[in-house]
Design brief:
The chain contains six helices and five strands. With 153 residues, it is an alpha/beta fold. The chain is globular. The N and C termini lie far apart (39 Å). This is Nucleotidyltransferase domain-containing protein.
């Protein structure tokens, strides 16, 4: 059974934001009860991002799910990271292992950080089209929904 559909925070297209703007976009517009819940989700996401940043690789990050809607109490934050394959391939062994933990242990990451993480490759039309469809429409698979995007270089 699907969760109740809430209106998206962004009606259509992409909105580029920075990590510093996450609170303003996803927490500040809500009342104090929802703010507490959403702030806790953002803390988990921030911890995940801190782990990711130690990899020192380029990424484009799309944020979606009920966290990107007016839902007061989303269960997690859905994200897809796009990587350059050559950067992932050239990671030293320790960082490769960390990459695998972060991006291939989805259930563990969801339990640890409240983040449902997916990934694709930069330049892959298949990956971009798939996630643009999944993240860019509401549950009815027709109504457009905007996607928040961050970039790490």
């Amino acid at each position: 059974m699907r969760e109740r559909e809430f209106p998206p925070l962004l009606a259509n297209g992409f909105k580029d934001i920075t990590e510093a703007e996450l609170h303003k976009e996803f927490v500040a517009p809500f009342n104090y009860q929802a703010e507490d819940h959403r702030s806790n989700l953002l803390i988990g996401f921030g911890s995940f991002l801190n782990e990711f940043k130690t990899l020192d690789i380029t990424a484009e990050v799309w944020i979606d799910g009920s966290f990107a809607t007016t839902a007061p109490d989303p269960s997690d934050i859905d994200v897809v990271f796009y990587f350059k394959p050559e950067e992932v391939d050239s990671l030293e062994q320790e960082k490769k292992e960390k990459f695998e933990r972060l991006f291939q242990s989805r259930r563990f990451m969801k339990n640890l950080y409240n983040v449902e993480v997916f990934y694709g490759m930069v330049g892959s039309d298949y990956d971009y089209n798939q996630w643009n469809y999944v993240f860019g429409t509401c549950y009815d698979n027709k109504t457009p929904k905007g996607i928040f995007r961050m970039r790490y270089n």
